[in-house]
Amino acid sequence: MTAIRRVLWVVGVALGCHAHAACTFGTSSEPSLQNVFDSMLPTGSLSATNDCLDDGADAKWVATGQAVATIVIELAGFASQNTFGIYDTADPTKRATIFVGSDGAGTRDTVQITQQNGHYSVFDNGVWAANFATPTFGFFLTTPENNTFLSDTSLNGDHGDHMYAYQGNGTTFTSGSMAGQSFATNMYLLAFEDLAFPNTDRDYQDFVAAAQFIAPVPLPAGGALLLAALAAMWTRARIRFARTATV
User: What is this structure's pTM?
Assistant: First the structure.
């Protein structure tokens, strides 16, 4: 029985890559991310702790149409200086800025990624912004402390997870810059922490943006094969246990 429990635990961990994670927060004198969610969505409809995507699942993204990004709220001391945008996952130094410090809550931009002559051109509100090598992108936030934090945690110099992502659940925004709009399933709330680890309050409400018509890039094929192998191991273990139990 012990062997079966161990296999079940491994399978559960692997499957968790597709599920929601339990996100952690620090202490801050400012409103919490949960307070922010409850102020603009039906109270309790979105959990800051339990509804965020797994860290590996929010690293890379693709557009499912013309992506629309909107600043939901910005409570950071760096609000007038932070910049937000997307970067090329093939070369993270290639970036397209979407919002600058002078942009406030409610500012809305439309981003289009178009394949042209062997590369992908990024247009922000119809104006060319950058050329990417692939259509796959990540999100970044740059602060006046010369820190740039990427959605792919493995690329951050402090090895910290600076972006929590939350998928739409079909409710309606009740207040704020998104009031009256649907929190559709093809929309994600992107919540950033703008201080470097370990000297951070981990409140993740410094910059919150809504991005629609995007989707996280799924696990690579290798990950799917690993899950299949673990599932097969679990099935064989159950059969062996059943045979042993009947002897």
Answer: 0.81
Tokens representing 47? 């959990």
Mean pLDDT of the chain: 84
Long-range contacts of 200-203 (CB under 8 A, 24+ apart): 200/26, 200/160, 201/26, 201/27, 201/28, 202/24, 202/25, 202/26, 202/28, 203/25, 203/26, 203/28, 203/30, 203/32, 203/33
Could you tell me which of 154, 124, 153, 135 has the C-alpha nearest to residue 90?
Answer: 135
The residue among 119, 117, 143, 139 whose CA lies nearest residue 131 is 119
Beta-carbon contacts of 56 under 8 Å, excluding residues fewer than 6 positions away, are 17, 219
Alpha-carbon distances, residue 206 vs 6, 101, 162, 189 (angstroms):
40, 12, 10, 13
DSSP state of 145: T
Q: What is the DSSP letter of 32?
A: P
DSSP letter string, 53-122: BPGGGGS-EEEEEEEEEEEEE---TTTTT-EEEEEETTEEEEEEEEE-TT--TT-EEEEEEEEETTEEEE
Which residues are CB-neighbours of 220 under 8 A, at least 6 positions away? none
Summarised one tens digit per residue, pLDDT across range 5-19 is 222 222 222 333 335
pLDDT digits (tens, 9 = 90+) for 162-186: 999 999 999 999 999 999 999 999 9
